[in-house]
Amino acid sequence: MARRLQVGTVMTEGTLPMTSALSPREAGLEAAFVKHYPRVFGILLRLVGDCGQAEELASEVFLKLYRQPWFGDMGGLDASEALARDMPAPTGLSGWLYRTATNVGIDHLRAAARRHCLPEFPPSK
Question: What is the pTM of this model?
Answer without folding.
Answer: 0.65
